[in-house]
Amino acid sequence: MNLSFFDQFMSPHLLGIPLILISLLFPALLLPSPRNRWITNRISALQSWFIYTTTKQLMTPLNKKGHKWALILSSLMIFLLSINLLGLLPYTFTPTTQLSMNLALAFPLWLATLLTGLRNQPSASLGHLLPEGTPTPLIPALIMIETTSLLIRPLALGVRLTANLTAGHLLIQLISTATAVLFSIMPAISILTACVLLLLTILEVAVAMIQAYVFVLLLSLYLQENI
């Protein structure tokens, strides 16, 4: 019984072909196709407004050099948001519950921000490893601590996204299973758990949106330190 709860996090296969590739490409179908006009209907206008607002929010703390990353960060935000929300639908698979995928997204982008800082301002980037005014005996220890905290940033990004989405999916499955089991035994309790399930689903929609935003926001903060 315990193993069945985690079956939803296994990557599905069909004839030996991993279907995770289809789930990664599916959000692109939701984007509007290019037309002769920028805005063709209300949905396109809403999508354009959302992309503009998100890009503006992410780019506000950065200077003009950081605005070169606007397309990458905005695309990543929309990609994660689409996958997280689509994963809440019944009989779907959420790729962002896989730690390997989240690390594959976090590590290259974090490394790119780090290399950008080392190339453009190496002294300032290395200066973050040693706070100003540090006593001389504490310098080696602080350098090791700051280096460790710097190196675990991509791991923290991936684990945070994976853990929050995995916990939410498990709670939804546990409560929905309890609702189905109690329906024939105690209908009143089953209705109560169904109400809890509805509230939890609304909460998970918010978590899916917030986690996508936090993932990209932290990357923009890492970029801000290095430009």
UniProtKB/TrEMBL annotation:
Organism domain of life: Eukaryota
Keyword set includes Cytoplasm: no
Pfam families on file: ATP-synt_A (PF00119)
Transmembrane segments: 12-31, 69-89, 101-118, 171-199, 205-223
Membrane-topology annotation of the record: Multi-pass membrane protein
Keywords: ATP synthesis, CF(0), Hydrogen ion transport, Ion transport, Membrane, Mitochondrion, Mitochondrion inner membrane, Transmembrane, Transmembrane helix, Transport
Chief localisation class: mitochondrion
Gene Ontology MF terms: proton-transporting ATP synthase activity, rotational mechanism
NCBIfam families documented for this protein: ATP_synt_6_or_A (TIGR01131)
Quaternary structure annotation from Swiss-Prot or TrEMBL: Component of the ATP synthase complex composed at least of ATP5F1A/subunit alpha, ATP5F1B/subunit beta, ATP5MC1/subunit c (homooctomer), MT-ATP6/subunit a, MT-ATP8/subunit 8, ATP5ME/subunit e, ATP5MF/subunit f, ATP5MG/subunit g, ATP5MK/subunit k, ATP5MJ/subunit j, ATP5F1C/subunit gamma, ATP5F1D/subunit delta, ATP5F1E/subunit epsilon, ATP5PF/subunit F6, ATP5PB/subunit b, ATP5PD/subunit d, ATP5PO/subunit OSCP.
Similarity comment text for this entry: Belongs to the ATPase A chain family.
PANTHER family: ATP SYNTHASE SUBUNIT A
Protein name, per record: ATP synthase subunit a
